[in-house]
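Quiz preparation item.
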């Protein structure tokens, strides 16, 4: 049997970390088993949809390298894949359930339902269910469009063997007769999702744990319609820095995938990192290409425990990928960040890129690094004094670098170390005078790398200025 999996975003928001992780794990199971991966837009909550929700989801998934096997927009084997374009399909099943007497019309107004709820709560029932009073009712209410509810049995339990959590069961009496189509004619999520998963021949439903409480409703609907029930997997939550579920309120963690793209993350790094949120392969290795992940993915290793969004690990992962970029890809990756530095030639930019490539954790860091090479150069008086106090360091270093033939970071570093050992200075007293004399700043990136980009001539000129003023 070909396995078919789906990612079913609601375009009520942009692609966030949790959604991307869900999509990615579905994708990995599909690809690992030679199955199919589809994307379905669940846009029935019309008032909450945002303008670019759908496009943002699809574009950013594509950026991550996650593409559907059946075109989510133009259609495909079982399309259209946008729920608002499938209303006729849902209506057909609503009619079938009405005919069978499994579903019924409900004319209760929101006000009446509220009153009923409040009464029950006052009686000490903390989570009241709909009383079912419209069940069997023939006469409608003039001017009121009915919603459609499904009759849920009250005896027994709904049970499933969850791919992540094992057996989960819910008493049926806790479910209540729920609405499958609202009075405005739009099906509810729990209804449309079952119809679509069945018609699209979805074999496995892998989604966030917030959907566990929806699953009993969905299973009962599969049973009512006499359909096979897919295998369910409910992924554990992702926790942020505060060890709470990642949420928009967590200001330390960027929530949306496009923001990572903007800060200069490589899609391969994000793909790698997300795959390890709630899943782990055997062994200690942490860097995996997409192809490797597809090959080794094992759904039995999905974790029940919450996963931790470790931003330090993400930065480390991104750095691992940046370090591996060849010259051409590095240029393509970093050029957009420095497009405003018009006075630097591409050649100069390339030298800056290459010099700082090993240390970059986010592409955006290149902006500040590049600024060093275009800013007006001046040294404050107080800092000048510091350099003058350490003028011997400058003199000795100058003498050594003049002899360097190949102006490389290692050569510059070794000249600096030799100055240090011959004058018996180290740390602050060794680096700082050189840094200040050449950049006018007390801190910054590795000074040998900076001098490498300045070039021998400019470095010597800047240092000599101090000697001549001496
Ligand atoms: N549209 C639902 C959501 O965005 C999908 C839930 C599911 O995968 O069944 O949460």
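Solution:
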């Amino acid at each position: 049997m070909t396995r078919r999996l789906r990612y079913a975003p609601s375009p009520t928001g942009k692609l966030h970390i949790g959604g991307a992780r869900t999509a990615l794990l579905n994708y990995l199971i599909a690809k690992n088993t030679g199955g199919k991966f589809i994307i379905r837009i669940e846009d029935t909550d019309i008032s909450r949809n945002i303008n670019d929700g759908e496009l943002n989801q699809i574009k950013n998934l594509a950026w991550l390298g996650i593409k559907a096997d059946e075109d989510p927009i133009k259609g495909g084997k079982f399309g259209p894949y946008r729920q608002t374009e499938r209303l006729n399909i849902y209506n057909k099943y609503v009619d079938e359930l009405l005919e069978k007497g499994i579903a019924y019309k409900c004319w209760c107004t929101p006000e009446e339902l509220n009153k009923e709820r409040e009464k029950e709560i006052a009686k000490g029932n903390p989570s009241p269910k709909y009383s079912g009073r419209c069940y069997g009712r023939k006469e409608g209410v003039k001017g009121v469009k009915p919603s459609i509810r499904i009759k849920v049995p009250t005896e027994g339990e709904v049970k499933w063997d969850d791919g992540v959590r094992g057996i989960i069961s819910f008493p049926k009496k806790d479910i209540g007769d729920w609405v499958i189509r609202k009075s405005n004619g739009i099906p509810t999520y729990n209804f449309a999702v079952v119809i679509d998963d069945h018609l699209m021949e979805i074999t496995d439903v892998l989604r966030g744990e917030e959907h566990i409480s929806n699953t009993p409703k969905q299973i009962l609907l599969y049973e009512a319609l006499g359909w096979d029930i897919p295998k369910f997997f409910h992924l554990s939550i992702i926790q942020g820095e505060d060890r709470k579920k990642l949420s928009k309120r967590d200001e330390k963690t960027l929530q949306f995938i496009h923001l990572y793209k903007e800060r200069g993350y490589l899609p391969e790094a994000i793909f790698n990192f997300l795959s390890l949120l709630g899943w782990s392969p055997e062994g200690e290795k942490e860097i995996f290409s997409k192809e490797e992940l597809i090959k080794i993915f094992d759904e039995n290793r999905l974790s029940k425990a919450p996963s931790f969004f470790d931003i330090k690990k993400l930065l480390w992962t991104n750095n691992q990928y940046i370090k591996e970029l060849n010259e051409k890809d590095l240029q393509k990756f970093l050029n957009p960040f420095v497009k405003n530095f018009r006075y630097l030639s591409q050649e100069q930019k390339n030298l800056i890129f290459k010099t700082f490539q090993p240390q970059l954790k986010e592409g955006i860091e290149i902006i500040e690094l590049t600024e060093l090479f275009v800013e007006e150069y001046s040294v404050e008086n107080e800092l000048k004094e510091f350099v003058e106090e350490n003028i011997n360091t400058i003199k000795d270093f100058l003498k050594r670098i003049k002899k360097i033939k190949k102006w490389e970071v290692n050569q510059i570093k070794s000249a600096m170390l030799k100055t240090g050992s011959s004058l018996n200075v180290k740390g602050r007293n060794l680096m700082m005078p050189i840094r200040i004399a050449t950049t006018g700043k007390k801190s910054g990136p590795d000074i040998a790398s900076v001098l490498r980009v300045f070039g021998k001539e400019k470095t010597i000129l800047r240092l000599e200025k101090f000697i001549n003023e001496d």
